[in-house]
Design the sequence.
């Protein structure tokens, strides 16, 4: 895809696309997150699961708008719900993770499928690692302090403390995010390819 200096900056039309697909990403996030939270595993693995499905909105947007700033803005949008869990530190760290993903995407110039998939996997993995880091560092104190906010029963709290106190579990969830985000991105690109390859976008 050919670009020039005049078209390399985000414009009003680009921000409209970002707003639309950002809303779609949030909808996917809330729906899949709510369904996953029906089970204990789904709750613990919420980020890896949701990022698998959110990839479709990411890939579609980046296929339409290949300009610096897209990954950072979209990444920021999807981590904002983290404030609902009273995890401001995790949100801030996650945004930093998407900034790193944006730097990688910009260096690769959004030029092909790999230059889109790799930054998505990086941003997703860093979001998973950095958002949950305060939870694991606190050895469960995070959930004890937020029991009312998160509407946790005593039984649910004990289950969280059992799982979230393990660094092995932390590493497993981060590794799972690498897998789910990679699969989600490739599957999404494959689905979208037939719709855009004729236009020379993918």
Sequence:
């Amino acid at each position: 895809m050919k670009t020039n200096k005049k078209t390399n900056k985000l414009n009003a039309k680009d921000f409209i696309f970002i707003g639309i697909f950002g809303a779609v990403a949030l909808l996917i996030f809330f729906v899949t997150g709510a369904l996953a939270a029906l089970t204990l595993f789904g709750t613990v693995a919420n980020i890896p699961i949701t990022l698998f499905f959110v990839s479709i909105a990411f890939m579609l947007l980046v296929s339409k708008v290949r300009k610096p700033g897209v990954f950072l803005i979209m990444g920021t949008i999807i981590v904002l719900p983290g404030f609902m869990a009273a995890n401001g530190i995790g949100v801030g760290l996650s945004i930093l993770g998407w900034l790193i993903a944006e730097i990688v995407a910009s260096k690769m110039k959004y030029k092909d499928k790999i230059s889109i998939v790799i930054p998505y996997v990086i941003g997703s993995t860093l979001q998973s690692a950095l958002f949950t880091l305060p939870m694991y560092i606190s050895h469960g104190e995070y959930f004890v302090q937020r029991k009312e906010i998160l509407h946790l029963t005593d039984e649910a709290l004990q289950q969280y403390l059992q799982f979230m106190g393990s660094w092995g579990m932390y590493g497993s969830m981060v590794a799972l995010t690498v897998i789910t985000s990679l699969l989600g991105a490739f599957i999404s690109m494959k689905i979208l390819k037939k719709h855009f390859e004729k236009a020379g976008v993918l």
About this structure: Confidence is low (pLDDT under 50) at residues 1-5. DSSP finds nine helices and no strands in the chain. The first helix runs from residue 12 to 36. The radius of gyration is 18 Å.
